[in-house]
Amino acid sequence: MFNTEYILLNHIKCVHTNDKLIECLECQSRFCSKWNLIRHMKLLHTNINYDEKAGSINLSCPSSYIKFGNMDILKEHIANYCSSCQISFQHKTSYDAHKMYYCREN
């Protein structure tokens, strides 16, 4: 079942003891590795959903609900999205000018 002794010992540490578990600040779930915590955060506490029928991950903006096929494009969209005006900008310079001169928030 376990290929190496390391994997077995890691399994015992993670599953059968509470030794050095990393806690999620959102829901207090506990994980034995940073990788598992990051995976948990991405899948449960962001707007990233796994589509079982398509066998792929759906990425959508939590503010505009626009869907993206690539995490980098989603990050760029979020970085250039004005949530108070509900406008997305293709370029950071346009977003910065909007925030400085036109945004209702200011």
Description:
- The chain is an alpha+beta fold and 106 residues long.
- Helices cover 41% and strands 18% of the residues.
- It is built from 4 helices and 7 strands; from the N terminus they run H-E-E-H-E-E-E-H-E-E-H.
- The chain has a 3-stranded antiparallel β-sheet with strand order 3-4-5. A two-stranded antiparallel sheet has the order 1-2. The protein has a two-stranded antiparallel ribbon with strand order 6-7.
- A hairpin with a 4-residue loop joins strand 3 and strand 4.
- The protein is elongated.
**Strand order within the widest sheet?**
3-4-5
Give unreliable regions as ranges: none
| Helix count, DSSP H or I runs of 4 or more residues | 4
The largest sheet is: 3 strands, antiparallel
Beta-strand percentage range: 15-25%
- Strands, count: 7
| Topology as a string of helices (H) and strands (E) | HEEHEEEHEEH
**For the residues shown, what is the average pLDDT?**
76
What would you report as the Rg, rounded to the nearest angstrom? 20 Å
Shape: elongated
Main structural class = alpha+beta
* Portion of residues within helices: 40-55%
* Gap from first CA to last CA: 60 Å
